[in-house]
Amino acid sequence: MADKIKLFVNGEEVEVEAGKNLIDAVGAVGIEIPHLCYHPALGADGNCRMCLVGIEDGRPPLVPACKTPAQEGMKVLLDAEHIKKIQHDVMEFELINHPIDCPVCDQAGECKLQDYYMSCDQKPSRMTVPQVTKNKKMDFGGGVIHDQERCVVCGRCVRFLRQITKTGELGIINRTDDARVNIFPGRPIDNRYGINVVDLCPVGAMTSSDFRFKQRVWFLKKASGVCHGCSKGCSITIDHNKEKNKDDIIYRFRPRFNGQVNGYFICDEGRLSYKSENENRLTAAFIGKVEREISDVLTAAKKELEMSKKAVFLISPDASLEQMVAVKALAAKLGATLSGYSDGYIKKGDGDDYLIQDDKAANRQGLLLLGIDTTKESFEKAVSEADLFVNFASDLSRSYEQDALTKLLTGKKTIVCATHESAFNGQATITIPVRSYSEYSGSVINCDNILQRFEKAVTKNNELLDICEVAAEFGCPLQTPAEAYAELQQVIGMLKEYQPATIPAEGLNLNDSEAANVTA
Ligand code: SF4
Ligand code: SF4
Ligand code: FES
Fold it and tell me: b or e along 399-423 (b: 16 or more beta carbons within 10 Å of the residue's beta carbon)?
């Protein structure tokens, strides 16, 4: 627990965390000090002067809050006339050459310059000379488009590429009116985290080539998700929207701060992986190659399960803990062998020493915690002895070439629960479309043993079944999400103190307690 100190803001006493600068300290208790260049992940640069505040202890009349540590008893002035005036003056300075093209700017609605103009300024321009015009659309590479006119030269983007990715593709060239952010000649942004500069930019000077002009941000609904692109499980915000007469679709993933997992950032591949939640989705149910009503298909699947003498279930390493525990309970009831084999999800050498992991599975730790076997030998042996193979959304094409898979499954009946279209679905005896992770809520455990909860973001016009619901249809003893969660609480001791809604946003660190608490 961090030490607390007491200080005064506009004469009101507030208790804040020690060891932080004024922006972060009072920001944590809901008092915002306007700022543009400061970002907690990048440190204080002190260049924008938007954060100037007064301190009543004989210091200079104005100090930058980003560079001023919060101290016991400090008397901070935010609402004095001279502070309001300096904020207005800085705004006026920032806006001298700003194009004010908010109606066509992607940042409108989440722009700090726009917000501060409304909260600190609201004055008309006094400028009578023409604005300095600059380049409106520069392709910086890496999916980043730059508008020099909108740039307030705060340097966040430059510092990110120097301090975090250490690739240094951007610099600020020239001074005063001529100051411009630019790439070096012939050296575009070229790293796996570059699009974070779009989130970092406090104004609309950095836009994503993927997102720009697709949606006004105020139409987007937000849900707390966990990226399923690799086993890091970065916390994300899923921005989605259902336009009139259309389906609910996802427009972007953005990083959601999580000090235990990903800090403020995510990788570009994970960010753009929202597309696979929209595209190539399996939405129809089949018996053989014939499309049928889902009720008929479930009846046929249940018959196959009843007739089977020896079944093998395969569960995806991307499945939630709730889905895993439900499928495990179903397998136990029906006497089926359960496997989590998924070696093909591991791309050796692809990870780095920052966020990206070799393992592209979101919940392999869940398989291990629940004691689900993941070895190839056991899986192939069980399949060779079985008459029925049921795949709960594992992408076998990652582990097998099509021919090898056909050979492995020759002579078996196959029931496939799948989120996406694939060649393998077409060969199945029965195919059941199921929801993907943006369409249900659940929990996953990342590679560092952090258990995170994610919420259902998307509700499709034609809602598919969740794997838990399919398992329940097949006779799983855990018939509801509450029963599945109660079972998880038996396995993961730490969960006994929490209900799904009370699991902290930053997740639960299982490292300290679970070695002793796992009962699976
Ligand atoms: S592009 Fe954005 S982040 Fe970069 S210096 Fe300009 S305003 Fe700051
Ligand atoms: S590092 Fe992994 S979990 Fe994080 S955003 Fe990238 S793919 Fe997703
Ligand atoms: S945020 Fe303090 S000077 Fe920019």
Answer: bbeeeebeeebeebbbbbbbbebbe
Looking at the chain, the domain(s) classified CATH 3.30.70.20 span 102-208
In the DSSP assignment, the letter for residue 118 is I
Distance (Å) from CA 398 to ligand 2 centroid: 18
- Which amino acids bring their CB within 6 angstroms of ligand 1? 151-157, 181, 200-201, 203, 205-206
Atom of ligand 2 nearest to the CA of 226: 3
> Is the beta carbon of 372 within 6 A of some atom in ligand 3?
no
Q: Where in the chain is the domain with CATH 3.10.20.740?
A: 4-95
Query: What is the distance in A from the centroid of ligand 1 to the CA of 180?
Result: 9
CATH number for the region 102-208 comes to: 3.30.70.20
pLDDT in tens, 307-359: 999 999 999 999 999 999 999 999 999 999 999 999 999 999 999 999 999 99
**Does residue 90 have its Cβ closer than 6 Å to ligand 3?**
no
Provide the CATH topology of domain 4-95.
Ubiquitin-like (UB roll) (3.10.20)
Which residue in 443, 439, 105 sits closest to 274, CA to CA?
439
What's the pLDDT tens digit per position in 261-293? 999 999 999 999 999 999 999 999 999 999 999
What's the CA-to-centroid distance between 96 and ligand 1, angstroms?
A: 16
Q: Say which CATH class 285-517 falls into.
A: alpha beta
